[in-house]
Amino acid sequence: MVDSNFTLVLSGGGALGIAHLGVLHDLEEKNITPDEIVGTSMGGIIGACLAIGMREQEIYDQIRKFSSVFNWIKFSFSGNAVVDNDRIADIFDTIFHDRKMKDTTIPLKLIATDLHSGDKKVFDAYDDIYIKDAVLSTMAIPGIFEEHSVKGRTYGDGFLCENLGVTEAVFDTILAVDVLGKNSFEETMPDNFFKTSNVLEMFERSVRLLIYNQTRTHLSHLDKSIYLLEPDTKHFKTFYFHKYKEIRALGLGLL
Q1: Residue 120 in 3-state DSSP?
Q2: Contact between 112 and 156 (Cβ < 8 Å)
Q3: How many other C-beta atoms are found inside a 10 Å radius of the C-beta of residue 82?
Q4: Residue 157 · residue 12 · CB < 8 Å
């Protein structure tokens, strides 16, 4: 499939991003290693783990260990978000320790959003910061996860700018995995008995469509060879971390 140097791009998508692991499993089976990794949000977390040399099974074990949200969620009753990052930061401490963005086996780029200016921020080896700080920035969904400050700037989730970071790829060949692509939403409208369920489903559907169209715009202006994988995630919610086994399976066999 890929016979030259290539960039692996992993999208954001909450729990849906666990499907990236299925793709990583198949890459390992074929003994294919990316020459660069670009990640956003959940794709950034998994991409960072891969970039420091972790095997897919190791990353999967970490996700399985913390599949219960109560292992890593600490609710906050102050500030701008409902989730305090303390427990998540402790988890990243055990994974990344004091490694900085320059201390990876594979060059890594993590996409975040500067909440002061609205600009996209791409953390890479030229940023003298810890990987855990870049990861906490790229995954900070506004209002849900606490925003993260790095060197006086405050950052939020990268999906606000570029959920599938294809424009940041150095190489002319890209393998991109988009868990919020065309297979992430139903063609039919919600039809639940309770109106509340319909409203919540419409909200998540709207966010998925917004991100999908953002990605399509970026892809339409891309002048590179791209292999785009879009796992069928439509039947899973972005908070279904407890369904890690089923979601991982969605990424298998796509190569």
Answers
A1: strand
A2: yes
A3: 13
A4: yes
CA nearest neighbour of 58 among 31, 25, 88, 27:
25
Q: Tokens for 127, please give them.
A: 């940023």
What is the pTM for the complete model shown? 0.90
Helix (H) / strand (E) containing 110: strand 108-114
User: For each of the chain's 255 residues, which pLDDT tens digit applies?
Assistant: 666 899 999 999 999 999 999 999 999 999 999 999 999 999 999 999 999 999 999 999 988 877 665 555 555 454 554 555 667 888 899 999 999 999 999 999 999 999 999 999 999 999 999 999 999 999 987 766 778 999 999 999 999 999 999 999 999 999 999 999 999 987 665 555 454 555 666 677 788 989 999 999 999 999 999 999 999 999 999 889 899 999 999 999 999
Residue with tokens 């692991």: 21
The secondary structure of 82-106 as a DSSP string is: SEESHHHHHHHHHHHTT-BTT--SS
**Do the Cβ atoms of 110 and 158 come closer than 8 Å?**
yes
CA dist list (Å): 142 to 96, 158, 174: 24, 10, 29
236-240: Cβ within 8 A, 24+ apart: 236/15, 236/16, 237/14, 237/15, 237/204, 238/13, 238/14, 238/15, 238/16, 238/204, 239/14, 239/15, 239/69, 240/15, 240/16
Token pair 């666990």 is found at 18
Strands 153-157 and 7-10: unpaired
Q: Which residue has the tokens 């407890």?
A: 242
Residues in the chain, total: 255
